[in-house]
Every structure is written in C-alpha cells, then in structure tokens.
Amino acid sequence: MSPILIFALVVALYLANSIKILNEYERGVIFRLGKLLPRPKGPGVILVFAPIDRMVRVGLRTIVMDVPPQDIITRDNVSVTVNAVLYFRVMDPTKAIVEVESFNYATSQLAQTTLRSVLGQVELDDLLSERDRLNQDLQRLLDQQTDPWGIKIAAVEVKHVDLPENMQRAMARQAEAEREKRAKIIHAEGEFNASERLAQAADVMSGQPLAITLRYLQTLTEIAGEKNSTIVFPLPVEFLNLLQPKRSAGSDGEQPQE
After folding, report:
1. Domains by residue range for the chain, with CATH
2. Helix (H) or strand (E) holding 152
3. Cα first-last separation, the chain
C-alpha cells in the first residue's frame, strides 16, 4: 500500500471522526485551542477538529428540577418542611458554560437557599394561603440571580408544606371553632329575621280578630295531614269571644213565659 493511499485513508478517518450531529434542541459550545468561539454551533452537522477543538453539548429544553425538602422556621416561629419544583432552561449556551462551572448544580443550590430565605420571612398563614404570590417572588429572585449565567427561570412552585403534628391538631381545632362561630352567627341572624317577621304578622293579625282563628284552623289542617292518631289542639279564647255576642243577643230577645 502506497504512502499516499495511507495518508488519504488517515485523513478520511480523521474527517469522519470530526463530524458531529447535534439535535434541534442542542447547541455545541466550541473551544479552539482553549479559546471560546464567538457563537455556538448547531443544530445539524458540524465539524469538530480534535484535538484542536473541544465541544461541550448544551441542551435548550426546559429542565424540571425537584428542590429537596428544606427545614424552615417561619416568621411566627413555626418549624415546617417545604419542598418545591423548579422549571428553567438555558437561553445563552455560551454563558451557561463559561460563567458557571455546573449550571445545574449551581441552580439547585441557589433555589434551596432562596427558598429558605423567602419563606422564612413570612408567617405560616401566608405560607398556606398566598402560594401564588410566594411562587412569583421566588421566580423573580431566582431569575435575577441566574440571568448572568444565561439561564431563564420559567416557574417555581411550592409543592408541599409539611407541618408538625401538634400544629395540625391546633389548626384543626381552630378551623372547627371558626365553623362553629359562623354556624352560631347564621342561626342568630335567622332567629332575628324570624322574630321580625313574627312581629309583623302579629301586628297584621291584631287588626283582624278572625285572622288568628283562621290561622289556628290552617294549623289544624296541617296537623291532620300527618295522620296522627291523637291530636291535642288548643281552642283560642278569641274564638269563644266571637260566639259570646250572639248568645247575648239571643238571650235578650227571649221573652219570659208567665
């Protein structure tokens, strides 16, 4: 085999080994003789001439990172355990490689410290009821700190808040007391409204003597519909008073017999 053929074969193998294929969601940061090339390469087919060039692959897809549970003491001195989930993506591959050693590890550590710092400044009630506002504050603070690394924080969600058992019992008692308070207030309002209506009804019936009698008869009809075996029904005095004038008139019209 001639030297020229051997040289051509070596060159062909070298060029074939220099061919790299990057997916649509990947970019290649190239260091040529230790110096960073101005623009990352990809996607598609690129050439990396080793050992002159060294390529670092960077993915541009959104990364979902689970922030480990953190022990936090809230502003009102309640110890809780909180974990969260972090969504971020690389916007500038060059900064993500050059400005920080490992952007995944750095983002994870930054998320943990920011989570403890922000949630430690709020009270327990705010932590449980204002999740949206706290998530926005965490996302804004993390995005400001990771922007020099070429990383965009898409969202931060507080996933779970683990309360001590004694605090859970105290909150359950508080919720039960609050429900009982609302029930008593609603019952009292109902009694007040009913008393007003009864007073108005009494005023109307006082002007019509027969109204109370009709009401008693209507009540008797309702009781009779229950199919009770025994009915004890009070007879109103007003009903007797209505019959008294007739008896008096009848007695006055009678003539004594001799």
Report:
1. 3-59 (no CATH), 63-163 (3.30.479.30)
2. strand 151-162
3. 171
SS3 125: helix
Q: How many CB atoms lie within 10 A of CB 42?
A: 22
The burial of 38, by beta-carbon neighbours within 10 Å (0-12 exposed, 13-18 middle, 19 or more buried), is given as exposed
Per-residue pLDDT of 90-137, as tens digits, reads 999 999 999 999 999 999 999 999 999 999 899 988 888 888 999 999
Secondary structure (3-state) at 164: coil
Using the Cα atoms of residue 49, residue 51, residue 52 and residue 55 in order, give the sign of their dihedral. Answer: positive
Q: Which residues have C-beta within 8 Å of that of residue 238, sequence separation ≥ 6? A: 209, 212, 213
Specify whether the backbone of 44 is left (phi greater than 0), alpha (psi in -120 to 50) or beta.
Answer: left
Judge if pTM exceeds 0.90.
no
Average per-residue pLDDT for the chain: 84
Radius of gyration of the chain (CA): 44
Cis previous bond, 51, omega within 30: yes
- Decide the pairing of beta strands 151-162 and 79-90: antiparallel
Compute the distance between CA of residue 80 and CA of residue 122 in angstroms, rounded to an integer: 12
pLDDT bucket at 181, cuts 50 / 70 / 90: confident
11-68 tens-digit pLDDT: 888 888 899 999 999 999 999 999 999 899 989 999 999 889 999 999 999 999 999 9
Is the Cβ–Cβ distance between 121 and 202 less than 8 Å? no
